[in-house]
Amino acid sequence: MTPRLHGLSPDTRMHIMVAGEALEAGRVDVAESHLASASASDPQHPEVLRMQAGIHSLRGRSQQAVSTMQQALAQRPQDALYHNTLGTLLGNAGAFDAAIAALRRCCELKPGLAIAWYNLGVMLTRCVRNDEAVIALQRAVALAPDHVDARALLADMLRTRGQTVEATMEYRKVLVEQPWAGQAWWGLADLRTTRFNDDDIAHMQAAMQQPRASENDLIAMGFALAKALDDNGRLDESLAALAQANAIARRRQQWDANAFSKGISAANQAFLPPLAAAAEALGKEVVFIVSLPRSGSTLVEQILASHSSVEGAGELPDLPQVLGEESRRRGQPFPQWVHAMQPADWERLGRRYLERTAHWRRQRPVFTDKLPNNWMYIGAIRAMLPGARIIACRRDPLETCFSCYRQYLAGNEYTRTFDDLAAFWRDFDRSVCHWHTLHPSQVFEHEYEQLLADPEVHIRRLLDFCSLPFEPACLSFHENQREVRSPSATQVRQPLHDTARAPRYGALLDPLRMALGLLPWQQGDSP
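-> structure tokens emitted (527 positions)
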């Protein structure tokens, strides 16, 4: 009997072990049913609490997950696995600094635990600390050469550097050893240079029948299969594969569109009338690029990062982290504490953000922060960093929502249904319109389709908005070999071209059109 199960009855131990296996496979319903009996008899046992924390996390109850795991860890402070679990849950809750600290503690307590090094690599990747992430992931692979997720993530790192051939080879090696490795299949799909053939489709379909495939594998393979079917013109089958993958993800947690919309309204209202802010020039070093995913934000960053004065930092977690720190300090969630803030408080937060991001100004004076969901915090940006510029990237709503639906966006639960996607897009639209109306000189609305129609004119407008002189390199952005840390990494290394896909699907996308309030497709609609 494992020491972690000491004190439990044989029946409870059995339920705990089955629940643990189910959680490992991502099968939250099975885990929940088995844990119910254990919780009834031993609700405060640390192993029961650890399993309960995992269920909370998979259900989207991030704060409950962390709190429950902290109760378990308090009983076993020297248990490395408990620190590993806490680190993972903190990361799922967006508390990346605390997650990294917990995982480093785990690695200190048990240096041979490969999963901890892998989880540390994941968290460092999310914090755009890629050099450190590679070291952690290499350590995981050295300890466990069959750790396919670590190897797939290392292949992702090759992709960010533009090494697509090497990344392809690594994904294929993983699949030879473990054909149901969903992350490897999705990695190949997300390269966008790989065109899947009939053999690939057959192999994916067979792999999805493997009992060893976890729910995470099935979701990732589902998105890859949809891409393969699309490549081969089997569009109705592609949509069916997407529906199945999104349905599996949605079984774990459902998006509450009404609650989210109310939260956005509260965040916007909290900054009305416009608040007394930090010193006016604070933040002139940063350009925030906000958007829905798949709206051309990586392209805008690539254009700006081709300028000699701009460092393209990618999707930085620092703004939400700074706001989260203030929420914990005040014991209230954002935006409830906004009304209590004074100009000196906003300046403190602005300087904290600049301190956290100083790394990105070592080589060039200006940097971009393109975390998409920062559109939710435009009011806070304006108060903390009045000198910052904010570019809100827009793309045709049908193309945007369909592209989000097709993309494996872990943790973005609003992408699972057309209705939720449409509601999310409307919240983005009204929020950006609101802030552009209030601050037209600091919030710029960029249209992807306008850039396609007249690249030089709109690239010059972007540069003018950022107070940057024109440089020809910005027109040949696709030649820039910088690391690109987003799903569009391969696309932005190609000359500008239209990536619209919705017209190919015709009336098949009418349910999404209806959700967005658009007219049904008609024969003869232009591609």
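The mean pLDDT is 91.
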